[in-house]
Design goal:
single chain, about 675 residues, alpha+beta, seven-stranded antiparallel sheet, 20 helices, about 25% strand
């Protein structure tokens, strides 16, 4: 199945050709029929009688496109030829798999011919068929002259080697040849069709049917869709359901992709859908706030009168960008020259629907009413720098690297994949071979080949590779410098911790987190530290850092003049303001023990008192508060918090006026040693 666009100047016979071929006049509006002029996009379908084309029928069966009993359908889009309807023409051209250019023998090349040819260069197709119509009205010399004109203006494009069919809708001369050529083109397009991880569908028409609700039309790409499937309607990512499907004028239960399709949707009203909305088979949350466009100027014979740089630089007028059937307006496009006729554009501005990498797009200005240039979109997956100077510096760097890794002869898919990878490398500092957004018209192999080119051609002094990651050495060094600062800050506020998870002191999207543990260990070792199980080992001993040791010793000196003179936690905090972290370190390392309610004792005290109480309980299986006071020789100020602390550790358990062995009494030595340290 394929979608063929019929292009050409107004009144050159596009609609008539389709009517002869399909039996349907694609001009469906009364005004169109009255004026004999296509205003809206027209649509038609053809089911060729394949028995008339036995070789092509056999080819379709071999390709698995049809069975012995099924029919083959081709859909057509008839695009307006008048310049007033440029926007509608562009929406049609950007959704085709093959193109038929109709040129009348009496008029020859006209402005609409040039405009449609220029637009077709940016359509997804590279399949063209040229039809010279109305040959019954002129001499054969004139037909030959038109042929020469066509060959001249199509030189350097995919049209230059296209077949030319001479045809008359009046005498039907050339009609059989035309039918066969169209069928061959459709088969080639069908054979080249690609499935994607996400099916997508740009809405070009919306209407209602009584008792059925909202109906949309467009071309389904990438995935098949069945009745009952849930789809997502953008810009709001609204969930809708398919009630019924029509393809080629026939209701079907399964929509094949790469064909004109009408969906009857449940869960949305007609008023809530607009032309250019996007329907996806999967939900995608990839907001686009800026993007690149690889712009390719047409050859000299098809260049517009206004120069690219002049037109896009005009002040006080927005420029238009169309992709799929979506029309967007922007204030500015930054241009960077790459090769002859090839430029890199950068556009900053929010787009409220997802953009697939590699999507075809066309740029024009409303006042010019002419296609300026077109190309392929590459959404930027991360926010671009806010200042223009920083942004331009980044893009200049991207351009430099692109010219190292690509050439003007590189296949378009590889150039786009290289640009996509480089945008990640330049703006994020690293890129992975497995980089592949959920919405891309490029294949994984395109990205993999582009990754290998980057790995081979980028300077090793500037860029490193770790497995399937390429990273900027400059960016990595800046990350390591930030890591040093963060480690110092962490150490100052977490004196009791000897290790820190790398994930807690680095941003999620950083180079270090993407490298192998072996590589990270080497880098951390160069900082004089160790890396184990995702943690940076800050210190392997229990000593305070030298610059804090004096304060720690002054605090401990307050616990050398008898238990009854020990300061409380509140008193220490007051006497040593700003030393909270040092006090916490002393407690965590067992130099001091916090019994609760602000009562502090030394680690030595805790071990001594605990062993005395446990020794008595091992003899008598219980101990009273009075017995404990007699054994320890301390007042109730310290005794009660101490006994309650033992209860909290499950070493003892209170029963009335006495303590008995708790659930962890047998583990007492291990518990005591882990809390009270010398």
């Amino acid at each position: 199945m394929a979608v063929i666009g019929v292009l050409g100047h107004t009144d050159h016979g596009k609609s008539t050709l389709l009517e002869r071929l399909t039996g349907v006049n694609p001009m469906h509006l009364p005004e169109e029929k009255e004026r004999g002029l296509t205003i809206q996009l027209g649509f038609a379908f053809w089911e060729p009688e394949l028995n008339e084309f036995p070789k092509l029928r056999a080819q379709l069966i071999d390709l698995g496109k049809i069975s012995e009993s099924t029919k083959y359908r081709i859909s057509f889009i008839d695009v307006p030829g008048h310049e007033m309807f440029l926007r509608k023409m562009l929406r049609g051209v950007l959704g085709i798999d093959g193109a038929i250019l109709v040129v009348s023998a009496d008029d020859g090349i006209m402005p609409g011919t040039l405009e449609h040819l220029r637009a077709s260069l940016y359509s997804p197709t590279r399949l063209g068929l040229i039809v010279i119509s109305k040959i019954d009205k002129v001499s054969m010399d004139r037909v030959d002259d038109v042929k020469r004109q066509i060959r001249s203006i199509t030189k350097g494009t995919y049209w230059e080697n296209s077949r030319i069919v001479q045809y008359s809708s009046e005498t039907m001369v050339g009609f059989q040849e035309l039918r066969e050529e169209i069928l061959q083109m459709a088969i080639r397009a069908d054979e080249a069709s690609t499935s994607y991880s996400v099916g997508y569908y740009f809405v070009d028409r919306i209407f209602t049917a009584k008792g059925r609700g909202a109906i949309v039309t467009g071309t389904l790409r990438g995935q098949e869709v069945s009745i009952g499937d849930e789809l997502y309607l953008y810009p709001k990512s609204r969930k809708v359901r398919v009630r019924s499907i029509e393809q080629g004028g026939v209701e079907v239960s399964l929509a094949r992709h790469n064909f004109r399709t009408a969906f009857n949707l449940v869960g949305v009203k007609k008023e809530e859908i607009s032309q250019g909305d996007l329907i996806l088979t999967k939900q995608i949350n990839e907001p686009v706030s800026s993007f690149f466009i690889l712009l390719v100027e047409p050859p000299d014979a098809l260049k517009p009168e206004v120069q690219l740089s002049t037109t896009l630089a005009r002040a006080k007028e927005k420029f238009n960008l169309i992709f799929g059937s979506r029309l967007c307006e922007f204030n500015e496009i930054l241009l960077f020259h790459l090769f002859s006729q090839i430029h890199l554009g950068f556009i900053r501005g929010k787009v409220d629907i997802p953009i697939p990498i590699g999507c075809s797009a066309i740029v024009y200005r409303t006042s010019v009413r002419s296609v300026i240039v077109g190309g392929f979109l590459i959404p930027l997956a991360i926010p671009a720098p806010k200042t223009k100077r920083t942004l331009v510096t980044k893009i200049d760097e991207l351009k430099r690297l692109f010219l190292i890794t690509a050439s003007k002869d590189s296949p378009t898919e590889i150039s786009l994949a290289i640009l996509a990878l480089l945008s990640q490398l330049v703006f994020k500092g690293y890129v992975s071979r497995t980089f592949y957004t959920s919405f891309s018209l490029l294949q994984f192999n395109d990205f993999s080949l582009a990754f290998d080119l980057l790995s081979e051609k980028l300077n090793n002094n500037e860029f490193g590779r770790d497995g399937e990651i390429i990273f900027s050495r400059k960016e990595l060094q800046e990350e390591l410098n930030r890591l040093k600062v963060n480690l110092v800050k962490f150490r100052e506020t977490n004196l009791s911790k000897a290790k820190v998870p790398l994930s807690t002191i680095l941003q999620d999207e950083c180079i270090l987190k993407k490298l192998s543990e072996e590589h990270i260990s080497k880098l951390i070792l160069e900082l004089g530290l160790k890396f184990e199980d995702g943690n940076v080992v800050i210190s392997e001993d229990s000593a305070l850092p030298p610059d804090l040791r004096a304060v720690g010793e002054r605090i401990l000196a307050r616990f050398q003049s008898g238990v009854e003179n020990y300061p409380t936690l509140l008193a220490l905090s007051s006497d040593f303001p700003g030393a909270r972290n040092i006090i916490s370190w002393l407690i965590s390392n067992g130099k001091l023990v916090h019994l609760g309610k602000g009562v502090l004792i030394t680690g030595i005290d805790f071990q001594d008192w605990s062993l005395k109480v446990v020794s008595r309980m091992q003899e008598t299986q219980q101990i009273s508060t009075q017995e404990a006071k007699s054994i320890l020789g301390v007042t109730r100020k310290f005794l009660i918090p101490f006994l309650e602390f033992l209860d909290s550790l499950k070493i003892t358990q209170r029963e009335g006026e006495v303590r008995v062995p708790g659930r962890k009494f047998d583990q007492v030595e291990k518990i005591i040693s882990s809390i009270g340290k010398h």
